[in-house]
Amino acid sequence: MQLIQLNINNINNINDINDINDINDLNDINDIINNIINNNNNIDNLINANAAEIHAETLPAAVLPIEDRQNTHLASVHRSAADSATRLMTSYTDEIVGDNLEQKLQAIRLWALSLQPEQQSVKDCIVRLTNVGFTYEEPISHISIHQVLALSWAALHDETKRQGTLADGLNLFAQGLYEIQNEYGPGSPACTGGTFNKIIEKLVGIHLDAEQLIITPEQASFKLSIVVKEEAYKYLSNLANPETKEGVKAFTGLISRIKNDGIEKIWDSIESCVADRMIEEFGSIYNDSKDDERFQSLMKCSIYVELDSLDQFQKKLSESNGYNQWMQSLLRHRFFPEALTSEHAREGEPQLGFVSEP
Description:
The protein is mainly α. The chain folds into 2 domains: 12-53 and 216-347, no CATH class; 66-201, no CATH class. Helix content is 57%, strand content 0%. It is built from 16 helices and no strands. The longest helix is centred in the first third of the chain and has 27 residues, at 66-92. The chain is elongated.
């Protein structure tokens, strides 16, 4: 017999079956069935009314000492600078291989010599950075200071990718070199890592390959809520299509426990996925390690995330084979009570309410 298709507004309508102690009490069962069948709320309206929308929540971020804030800021800036340098290398490798590298550096030296006397700091910086003894290589991109200077020079002269005029680009280049040379006071230059970052920084907005992203612990805390919800809903969606009536009972019981006790009920099942996504996006401020104490503190904030769109699974559950089995059993109780054997009566029908812990 073709199963009657039912639309429901809330799975809680059928959770009332939990209150039935005697499965043969047909009056109570009939009342519940009628409530389900006569429910005029269309579940599609529920789904369309932002049931699947995920609202980001700002979680309290761990307060870091000033030193830690500076270190994490520098780590995130350096990662994006390294990525930008890698893109520049992809675009202009041919222009700096072999003798081309020294030719580019010589062009930079000649440009520096043409600057006004008041720009002596820029000249001094170029002499220092292009010296054969200045051999720093950035550890992520494996690009040297000599190479990033040459790549920047090539980028500034590329009219197909440069945004703005060459004069504007060279002014920013000179400004960056001045800041490098005087980072800690007149004639007190920046460290090698800061030098690398500053060269890339001055290309941001001038060249399409250069960008500098600043990632902070506060951003990580904000994103954690989004990631936890996405992974939780993905996990629950995979469970919302049970093949048996027992699966329906287990799923609705799980939803009830989450509503009562929070995300802890499924945390062990999603923790690894959440950690992987967070470390992939924010690893630069946590030393790329899930064992970092600050990362561990961040992950502990996951217990404060509230899953406020659990009703989104109602439609999928009502279309599952398991739900169809449950409804067939329920309808048999209503329309064919005399066909129930004593064995069926002793077994009872699935009760779609709270499921006790194993």
